[in-house]
Amino acid sequence: MGGNNSNSYIHEPDIYFLKEDTYAGLHPNFFNPDDFAWVKILESKYEQILNEIGGLIYGKEEMPANLNPPYLSSPDAWRNFYFSNFRWYNHPNCKKYPVTFSILNEIPNFSFAGITVLEPHSKVLPHIGETNATIRCHFALKIPGNYLDCGIEVNGEKRGYEEGKVLMFSDAHFHTTWNNTDERRFVIVFDVVQNQFAYKSNWVCASSLAALTVKYIDEKVKIIKPLPNMLLQLIHKSLAVAWYFYLPIQKQFRLFN
Predict the structure, then answer these.
(1) Last residue of a domain, one of 180, 197, 214
(2) 127 located within any domain
């Protein structure tokens, strides 16, 4: 899908958020899609994607419940259909929508993707992602209303969606989305590893999954985050090493399924 021609990266160390910390780095709230050559190619495939996943959008297929939802205004506010979670692949989902997955998989430094639905009169409450090393992207599939009715806010800056267009932002900043309409909002959420970290993109993915694991354990037993920071970082690094060696093995599962 072509490379990234952006020269606008702010160079800084990669950070992994084990708590709901405030990001103090210099990455912008929103990135300019025109700086990325692959965006126009992806947007040109909009109709192809709609043709394949229209059953989800138009109610002929049911969106599965998310197993690990972000902060929500209600338990059923948001659902997703993962293809890849930091290169931990859901192979049955990839095979169910092969055209869509193939298009996404051509994006340079692609690491994460899923089809998501935000239900009517619902919000994803303010939260941060797992790292500053990626750019979070929303590819708008079906958007009811304008940004006042259905939009996103990143670090205090509000934007709206346009169907068939990609919106790019840093989810290291606190961000929130809302849908105040009577219809569902559908976007493909995906991440790309920033160019400055591309040489270690597998480590970025493993470390992000380790951060997710730390948060998940703490949700269940509430023993992780009170630990001293040095011990918390050691746990995170150990989990990252385990994920780093597991991901290439798991990727190969699709060859045998």
Answers:
(1) 197
(2) yes
What does the pLDDT look like over 150-165, one tens digit per residue? 999 999 999 999 999 9
Q: Can you spell out the DSSP letters for 12-57? A: ----B-SSSPPP-S---SEE-GGGBHHHHHHHTTHHHHHHHHHHHH
Phi, psi of 40 (to 5 degrees): -60, -35
Instruction: Give the Cα separation of 231 and 8 in Å (integer).
Output: 35
Measured between alpha carbons, how far is 151 from 160 in angstroms, rounded to an integer? 5
The answer as to whether 25 is a domain residue is no
- Residue 256: CB partners within 8 Å, gap ≥ 6? none
48 and 66 both lie in a single domain: yes
Q: What is the pTM for the complete model shown?
A: 0.92
CA 88 to chain centre: 13
pLDDT tens, position by position, 32-85: 999 999 999 999 999 999 999 999 888 878 887 666 566 889 888 998 899 999
134's enclosing H/E stretch is strand 134-142
Q: Which domain holds residue 62?
A: 30-197
Distances from the Cα of 2 to the Cα of 40, 41, 98, 108, 175, angstroms = 10, 8, 20, 7, 29
Span 178-224, pLDDT tens digits: 999 999 999 999 999 999 999 999 999 999 999 999 988 888 887 77
Considering the domain architecture, whether residues 193 and 204 belong to the same structural domain is answered as: no
**Count, residues in the chain:** 257
Structural domains counted in the chain = 2
